[in-house]
Amino acid sequence: MKSKILVTGGLGFIGSHTVVALQEQGYEVVIIDNLSNSSLDVLAGITKITQITPEFENMDLRDKEAVANFFEKYPDINGVIHFAASKAVGESVENPLLYYENNLSSLIYILQHLSQKEQASFIFSSSCTVYGQADTLPIKEDAPIKKAMSPYGNTKQIGEEIIEDTCKVHPAFKAISLRYFNPIGAHPSAEIGELPIGTPQNLVPFITQTAIGIREQLSVFGNDYPTKDGTCIRDYIHVMDLAKAHVVALKRLLDNSSEKNYDVFNLGTGKGNTVLEVIQSFQKSTGEELSYKVADRREGDVIAAYADTNKANSVLNWKAAYNLDEALKSAWKWEKKVMKIEKKH
Ligand code: WQD
Protein backbone atom coordinates (compact mmCIF):
# COMPACT_ATOMS: atom_id res chain seq x y z
CA MET A 1 0.00 0.00 0.00
CA LYS A 2 1.35 3.43 -0.94
CA SER A 3 1.77 6.27 1.57
CA LYS A 4 -1.19 7.83 3.31
CA ILE A 5 -2.16 11.19 1.79
CA LEU A 6 -3.98 14.06 3.46
CA VAL A 7 -6.50 15.81 1.21
CA THR A 8 -7.83 19.01 2.79
CA GLY A 9 -11.16 20.11 1.35
CA GLY A 10 -11.48 16.53 0.13
CA LEU A 11 -15.30 16.68 0.13
CA GLY A 12 -15.29 19.63 -2.24
CA PHE A 13 -15.71 19.61 -6.02
CA ILE A 14 -12.11 19.10 -7.17
CA GLY A 15 -11.04 17.55 -3.86
CA SER A 16 -13.54 14.67 -4.06
CA HIS A 17 -12.58 13.81 -7.63
CA THR A 18 -8.91 13.85 -6.60
CA VAL A 19 -9.60 11.54 -3.64
CA VAL A 20 -11.15 9.03 -6.08
CA ALA A 21 -8.14 9.31 -8.39
CA LEU A 22 -5.72 8.81 -5.47
CA GLN A 23 -7.59 5.75 -4.19
CA GLU A 24 -7.64 4.26 -7.69
CA GLN A 25 -3.84 4.62 -7.72
CA GLY A 26 -3.58 2.70 -4.44
CA TYR A 27 -3.09 5.60 -2.04
CA GLU A 28 -4.73 5.62 1.38
CA VAL A 29 -6.53 8.94 1.91
CA VAL A 30 -7.43 11.00 4.99
CA ILE A 31 -9.79 13.88 4.33
CA ILE A 32 -10.03 17.04 6.41
CA ASP A 33 -13.15 19.06 5.68
CA ASN A 34 -15.24 21.42 7.84
CA LEU A 35 -18.35 20.82 5.69
CA SER A 36 -18.78 24.59 5.25
CA ASN A 37 -19.20 24.14 1.52
CA SER A 38 -19.93 20.42 1.19
CA SER A 39 -21.77 17.50 2.82
CA LEU A 40 -21.19 13.93 4.02
CA ASP A 41 -23.14 12.73 0.94
CA VAL A 42 -19.90 13.34 -0.94
CA LEU A 43 -18.08 10.80 1.30
CA ALA A 44 -20.81 8.30 0.40
CA GLY A 45 -20.39 9.17 -3.29
CA ILE A 46 -16.63 8.54 -3.15
CA THR A 47 -17.22 5.21 -1.40
CA LYS A 48 -19.78 4.18 -4.03
CA ILE A 49 -17.23 4.77 -6.78
CA THR A 50 -14.16 3.14 -5.20
CA GLN A 51 -15.69 0.88 -2.51
CA ILE A 52 -13.15 2.46 -0.12
CA THR A 53 -14.28 4.97 2.50
CA PRO A 54 -11.50 7.48 3.13
CA GLU A 55 -10.75 8.35 6.75
CA PHE A 56 -12.52 11.63 7.51
CA GLU A 57 -11.74 14.32 10.09
CA ASN A 58 -14.45 16.98 10.46
CA MET A 59 -12.28 19.90 11.53
CA ASP A 60 -11.54 23.52 10.78
CA LEU A 61 -7.99 24.29 9.67
CA ARG A 62 -8.22 27.75 11.23
CA ASP A 63 -7.96 25.96 14.61
CA LYS A 64 -4.18 25.84 15.15
CA GLU A 65 -4.46 23.33 18.00
CA ALA A 66 -6.70 21.03 15.96
CA VAL A 67 -4.11 21.05 13.18
CA ALA A 68 -1.35 20.17 15.68
CA ASN A 69 -3.48 17.34 17.11
CA PHE A 70 -4.14 16.05 13.59
CA PHE A 71 -0.45 15.72 12.75
CA GLU A 72 0.13 14.00 16.12
CA LYS A 73 -2.62 11.53 15.33
CA TYR A 74 -1.24 10.92 11.82
CA PRO A 75 2.58 11.15 12.22
CA ASP A 76 3.18 9.11 9.04
CA ILE A 77 1.48 11.59 6.70
CA ASN A 78 4.04 13.36 4.53
CA GLY A 79 1.99 13.93 1.39
CA VAL A 80 -0.68 16.64 1.35
CA ILE A 81 -2.97 18.02 -1.34
CA HIS A 82 -4.43 21.27 -0.06
CA PHE A 83 -7.79 22.31 -1.51
CA ALA A 84 -9.48 23.69 1.60
CA ALA A 85 -10.18 27.38 1.02
CA SER A 86 -13.04 29.80 0.46
CA LYS A 87 -13.34 30.45 -3.27
CA ALA A 88 -16.22 32.81 -4.07
CA VAL A 89 -14.70 35.84 -5.79
CA GLY A 90 -17.63 38.17 -5.07
CA GLU A 91 -17.91 37.13 -1.41
CA SER A 92 -14.18 37.79 -0.97
CA VAL A 93 -14.66 41.41 -2.09
CA GLU A 94 -17.42 41.89 0.52
CA ASN A 95 -15.61 40.03 3.30
CA PRO A 96 -11.84 40.17 2.69
CA LEU A 97 -10.77 39.33 6.26
CA LEU A 98 -12.78 36.10 6.19
CA TYR A 99 -10.78 35.11 3.09
CA TYR A 100 -7.36 36.18 4.39
CA GLU A 101 -7.94 34.39 7.70
CA ASN A 102 -9.41 31.20 6.26
CA ASN A 103 -7.23 30.76 3.20
CA LEU A 104 -3.92 31.86 4.67
CA SER A 105 -3.93 30.78 8.32
CA SER A 106 -5.00 27.24 7.38
CA LEU A 107 -2.16 27.09 4.84
CA ILE A 108 0.40 28.39 7.35
CA TYR A 109 -0.62 25.94 10.11
CA ILE A 110 -0.21 22.99 7.75
CA LEU A 111 3.15 24.21 6.44
CA GLN A 112 4.45 24.69 9.98
CA HIS A 113 4.09 20.94 10.50
CA LEU A 114 5.12 19.66 7.09
CA SER A 115 8.26 21.79 6.93
CA GLN A 116 9.58 20.13 10.13
CA LYS A 117 9.38 16.62 8.67
CA GLU A 118 12.31 14.55 7.31
CA GLN A 119 10.70 15.00 3.93
CA ALA A 120 7.27 16.19 2.81
CA SER A 121 5.36 16.69 -0.46
CA PHE A 122 2.76 19.42 -0.84
CA ILE A 123 0.38 20.19 -3.70
CA PHE A 124 -1.32 23.59 -3.59
CA SER A 125 -4.62 24.38 -5.27
CA SER A 126 -3.96 27.66 -7.06
CA SER A 127 -5.73 29.41 -9.90
CA CYS A 128 -5.21 31.15 -13.24
CA THR A 129 -6.78 34.13 -11.52
CA VAL A 130 -3.23 35.03 -10.40
CA TYR A 131 -2.53 36.18 -13.98
CA GLY A 132 -5.41 38.66 -14.14
CA GLN A 133 -5.83 39.72 -17.77
CA ALA A 134 -2.62 38.29 -19.24
CA ASP A 135 -0.89 40.35 -21.94
CA THR A 136 -0.09 37.26 -24.02
CA LEU A 137 -2.29 34.26 -24.81
CA PRO A 138 -2.06 31.34 -24.31
CA ILE A 139 -0.77 31.99 -20.80
CA LYS A 140 2.59 30.51 -19.75
CA GLU A 141 3.65 29.90 -16.14
CA ASP A 142 6.22 32.71 -16.38
CA ALA A 143 3.57 35.27 -17.38
CA PRO A 144 3.68 38.25 -15.01
CA ILE A 145 1.56 37.95 -11.87
CA LYS A 146 -0.78 40.93 -11.97
CA LYS A 147 -2.33 42.73 -9.01
CA ALA A 148 -5.14 40.42 -7.92
CA MET A 149 -8.63 41.57 -8.92
CA SER A 150 -10.13 40.17 -5.69
CA PRO A 151 -9.06 39.18 -2.16
CA TYR A 152 -9.75 35.57 -3.21
CA GLY A 153 -7.25 35.88 -6.05
CA ASN A 154 -4.83 37.64 -3.69
CA THR A 155 -4.94 34.71 -1.24
CA LYS A 156 -3.81 32.45 -4.08
CA GLN A 157 -0.94 34.78 -4.98
CA ILE A 158 0.14 35.20 -1.36
CA GLY A 159 -0.32 31.47 -0.75
CA GLU A 160 2.09 30.66 -3.58
CA GLU A 161 4.64 33.11 -2.16
CA ILE A 162 4.35 31.63 1.35
CA ILE A 163 4.96 28.14 -0.06
CA GLU A 164 7.89 29.25 -2.22
CA ASP A 165 9.55 31.02 0.71
CA THR A 166 9.07 27.91 2.87
CA CYS A 167 10.71 25.75 0.19
CA LYS A 168 13.70 28.11 0.09
CA VAL A 169 14.60 27.40 3.74
CA HIS A 170 13.45 23.76 3.93
CA PRO A 171 15.09 21.81 1.10
CA ALA A 172 13.43 18.57 2.27
CA PHE A 173 10.01 20.20 1.81
CA LYS A 174 8.89 19.92 -1.81
CA ALA A 175 5.86 21.70 -3.26
CA ILE A 176 3.99 22.28 -6.51
CA SER A 177 1.36 24.96 -7.14
CA LEU A 178 -1.26 23.96 -9.69
CA ARG A 179 -2.96 26.90 -11.42
CA TYR A 180 -6.38 25.71 -12.57
CA PHE A 181 -8.19 27.36 -15.40
CA ASN A 182 -11.96 26.68 -15.36
CA PRO A 183 -12.86 23.31 -13.78
CA ILE A 184 -16.19 21.86 -15.02
CA GLY A 185 -17.98 18.53 -15.35
CA ALA A 186 -18.43 15.56 -13.01
CA HIS A 187 -17.34 11.97 -12.48
CA PRO A 188 -18.85 9.76 -15.25
CA SER A 189 -20.71 7.76 -12.59
CA ALA A 190 -22.58 10.95 -11.51
CA GLU A 191 -21.93 9.89 -7.90
CA ILE A 192 -19.93 13.09 -7.28
CA GLY A 193 -19.89 16.50 -8.98
CA GLU A 194 -20.10 20.23 -8.41
CA LEU A 195 -22.49 21.20 -5.59
CA PRO A 196 -22.81 25.00 -5.64
CA ILE A 197 -24.56 26.27 -2.52
CA GLY A 198 -27.15 28.96 -3.35
CA THR A 199 -27.14 30.71 -6.71
CA PRO A 200 -24.22 29.39 -8.79
CA GLN A 201 -21.61 32.05 -9.56
CA ASN A 202 -19.94 29.94 -12.25
CA LEU A 203 -21.19 29.49 -15.82
CA VAL A 204 -21.58 25.73 -16.14
CA PRO A 205 -23.59 25.01 -12.97
CA PHE A 206 -25.81 27.96 -13.88
CA ILE A 207 -26.33 26.44 -17.34
CA THR A 208 -27.26 23.01 -15.97
CA GLN A 209 -29.57 24.50 -13.32
CA THR A 210 -31.27 26.59 -16.03
CA ALA A 211 -31.67 23.55 -18.28
CA ILE A 212 -33.20 21.50 -15.47
CA GLY A 213 -35.59 24.30 -14.51
CA ILE A 214 -34.14 25.50 -11.19
CA ARG A 215 -33.14 28.85 -12.79
CA GLU A 216 -35.37 30.85 -15.13
CA GLN A 217 -32.79 31.92 -17.65
CA LEU A 218 -29.02 32.23 -18.04
CA SER A 219 -27.64 35.77 -18.28
CA VAL A 220 -24.65 36.07 -20.56
CA PHE A 221 -22.51 38.72 -18.92
CA GLY A 222 -21.72 40.93 -21.89
CA ASN A 223 -21.39 40.34 -25.62
CA ASP A 224 -19.41 43.45 -26.51
CA TYR A 225 -15.93 42.13 -25.72
CA PRO A 226 -13.23 42.13 -28.44
CA THR A 227 -13.65 38.39 -29.14
CA LYS A 228 -15.01 36.36 -32.09
CA ASP A 229 -18.61 36.57 -30.84
CA GLY A 230 -18.30 39.34 -28.23
CA THR A 231 -18.39 37.02 -25.19
CA CYS A 232 -15.52 36.17 -22.85
CA ILE A 233 -13.12 33.32 -23.52
CA ARG A 234 -12.07 30.73 -20.89
CA ASP A 235 -10.26 27.37 -20.79
CA TYR A 236 -12.81 24.83 -19.53
CA ILE A 237 -11.10 21.72 -18.18
CA HIS A 238 -12.85 18.50 -17.12
CA VAL A 239 -12.53 17.91 -13.37
CA MET A 240 -11.44 14.33 -14.12
CA ASP A 241 -8.41 15.65 -16.03
CA LEU A 242 -7.69 18.02 -13.18
CA ALA A 243 -7.88 15.24 -10.58
CA LYS A 244 -5.45 13.09 -12.53
CA ALA A 245 -2.98 15.97 -12.76
CA HIS A 246 -2.93 16.23 -8.95
CA VAL A 247 -1.99 12.56 -8.58
CA VAL A 248 0.71 12.87 -11.23
CA ALA A 249 2.14 16.01 -9.59
CA LEU A 250 2.11 14.43 -6.11
CA LYS A 251 3.77 11.25 -7.38
CA ARG A 252 6.52 13.36 -8.94
CA LEU A 253 7.31 14.80 -5.51
CA LEU A 254 6.93 11.53 -3.56
CA ASP A 255 9.23 9.79 -6.06
CA ASN A 256 11.75 12.59 -5.64
CA SER A 257 11.95 12.89 -9.41
CA SER A 258 12.02 16.67 -9.40
CA GLU A 259 15.35 18.43 -9.03
CA LYS A 260 13.51 21.63 -7.98
CA ASN A 261 11.73 21.65 -4.61
CA TYR A 262 9.21 24.25 -5.82
CA ASP A 263 7.45 24.44 -9.17
CA VAL A 264 4.27 25.78 -10.77
CA PHE A 265 2.08 24.29 -13.52
CA ASN A 266 -0.91 25.58 -15.50
CA LEU A 267 -3.74 23.06 -15.72
CA GLY A 268 -6.00 23.68 -18.69
CA THR A 269 -6.84 22.17 -22.05
CA GLY A 270 -4.90 24.83 -23.93
CA LYS A 271 -8.09 25.70 -25.85
CA GLY A 272 -10.26 28.77 -25.25
CA ASN A 273 -14.04 28.82 -25.76
CA THR A 274 -16.43 31.77 -25.62
CA VAL A 275 -19.54 31.73 -23.43
CA LEU A 276 -21.74 31.36 -26.53
CA GLU A 277 -19.63 28.41 -27.69
CA VAL A 278 -20.17 26.75 -24.30
CA ILE A 279 -23.92 27.29 -24.64
CA GLN A 280 -23.89 25.84 -28.17
CA SER A 281 -21.78 22.89 -27.06
CA PHE A 282 -24.15 22.20 -24.15
CA GLN A 283 -27.23 22.28 -26.41
CA LYS A 284 -25.57 20.11 -29.06
CA SER A 285 -24.12 17.51 -26.67
CA THR A 286 -27.22 17.16 -24.46
CA GLY A 287 -30.03 17.95 -26.91
CA GLU A 288 -31.37 20.43 -24.33
CA GLU A 289 -32.60 23.87 -25.41
CA LEU A 290 -31.12 26.58 -23.14
CA SER A 291 -32.95 29.83 -22.36
CA TYR A 292 -30.50 32.74 -22.15
CA LYS A 293 -30.30 36.48 -22.66
CA VAL A 294 -27.44 38.95 -22.96
CA ALA A 295 -26.95 41.08 -19.83
CA ASP A 296 -24.43 43.66 -18.68
CA ARG A 297 -20.78 42.79 -18.25
CA ARG A 298 -19.77 41.36 -14.83
CA GLU A 299 -17.34 43.46 -12.81
CA GLY A 300 -13.86 41.94 -12.69
CA ASP A 301 -14.20 39.56 -15.64
CA VAL A 302 -11.11 39.23 -17.80
CA ILE A 303 -11.71 39.18 -21.56
CA ALA A 304 -9.83 35.97 -22.28
CA ALA A 305 -7.78 33.37 -20.39
CA TYR A 306 -6.57 30.01 -21.67
CA ALA A 307 -3.49 27.99 -20.79
CA ASP A 308 -0.24 27.23 -22.51
CA THR A 309 -0.07 23.60 -21.34
CA ASN A 310 3.37 22.70 -22.72
CA LYS A 311 5.07 22.63 -19.32
CA ALA A 312 2.55 20.24 -17.72
CA ASN A 313 2.46 18.16 -20.91
CA SER A 314 6.23 17.72 -21.03
CA VAL A 315 7.36 17.83 -17.39
CA LEU A 316 4.38 16.04 -15.80
CA ASN A 317 3.68 13.97 -18.91
CA TRP A 318 0.03 14.94 -18.38
CA LYS A 319 -2.45 16.20 -20.98
CA ALA A 320 -6.19 16.91 -20.69
CA ALA A 321 -8.04 14.04 -22.36
CA TYR A 322 -11.68 15.17 -22.28
CA ASN A 323 -13.16 17.79 -24.62
CA LEU A 324 -15.80 20.46 -23.91
CA ASP A 325 -18.76 18.40 -25.17
CA GLU A 326 -17.81 15.48 -22.89
CA ALA A 327 -17.33 17.73 -19.89
CA LEU A 328 -20.71 19.43 -20.39
CA LYS A 329 -22.45 16.10 -20.91
CA SER A 330 -21.03 14.85 -17.59
CA ALA A 331 -22.17 18.06 -15.87
CA TRP A 332 -25.69 17.54 -17.26
CA LYS A 333 -25.80 13.86 -16.16
CA TRP A 334 -24.78 14.98 -12.67
CA GLU A 335 -27.40 17.78 -12.55
CA LYS A 336 -30.15 15.31 -13.44
CA LYS A 337 -28.89 12.95 -10.72
CA VAL A 338 -28.84 15.72 -8.08
CA MET A 339 -32.34 16.78 -9.12
CA LYS A 340 -33.61 13.22 -8.71
CA ILE A 341 -32.05 13.02 -5.23
CA GLU A 342 -33.55 16.39 -4.24
CA LYS A 343 -36.98 15.39 -5.56
CA LYS A 344 -36.85 12.29 -3.31
CA HIS A 345 -36.23 14.35 -0.16
C1 WQD B 1 -16.86 32.09 -16.88
C2 WQD B 1 -17.45 32.99 -17.96
C3 WQD B 1 -18.49 34.99 -17.12
C4 WQD B 1 -21.83 33.02 -15.12
C5 WQD B 1 -13.99 31.81 -11.65
C6 WQD B 1 -13.00 32.28 -10.65
C7 WQD B 1 -11.74 31.47 -10.80
C8 WQD B 1 -12.07 30.01 -10.70
C9 WQD B 1 -13.10 29.62 -11.74
C10 WQD B 1 -11.74 29.29 -8.44
C11 WQD B 1 -17.18 34.48 -17.68
C12 WQD B 1 -19.50 34.08 -17.83
C13 WQD B 1 -20.66 33.25 -15.83
C14 WQD B 1 -23.08 33.43 -15.65
C15 WQD B 1 -21.94 34.28 -17.60
N1 WQD B 1 -12.56 29.71 -9.40
N2 WQD B 1 -20.73 33.87 -17.05
N3 WQD B 1 -23.08 34.05 -16.88
O1 WQD B 1 -15.01 33.94 -13.57
O2 WQD B 1 -13.69 32.63 -15.32
O3 WQD B 1 -13.48 32.04 -12.93
O4 WQD B 1 -14.26 30.44 -11.50
O5 WQD B 1 -10.57 29.06 -8.52
O6 WQD B 1 -10.85 31.84 -9.76
O7 WQD B 1 -12.71 33.63 -10.92
O8 WQD B 1 -15.57 31.51 -14.13
O9 WQD B 1 -17.69 30.36 -14.56
O10 WQD B 1 -17.74 32.49 -13.17
O11 WQD B 1 -17.33 32.61 -15.62
O12 WQD B 1 -21.98 34.86 -18.71
O13 WQD B 1 -24.18 33.26 -15.06
O14 WQD B 1 -18.85 32.84 -17.99
O15 WQD B 1 -18.74 36.34 -17.45
O16 WQD B 1 -16.95 35.12 -18.91
P1 WQD B 1 -14.44 32.65 -14.04
P2 WQD B 1 -17.15 31.71 -14.31
TrEMBL record:
SUPFAM superfamilies: NAD(P)-binding Rossmann-fold domains (SSF51735)
Gene Ontology BP annotations: galactose metabolic process
Domain NAD(P)-binding, residue spans: 6-329
Alphabetically ordered keywords of this record: Carbohydrate metabolism, Isomerase, NAD
The organism's place on the tree of life at top rank: Bacteria
Matching CDD domains: UDP_G4E_1_SDR_e
Protein name: UDP-glucose 4-epimerase
Protein species of origin: Gillisia limnaea (strain DSM 15749 / LMG 21470 / R-8282)
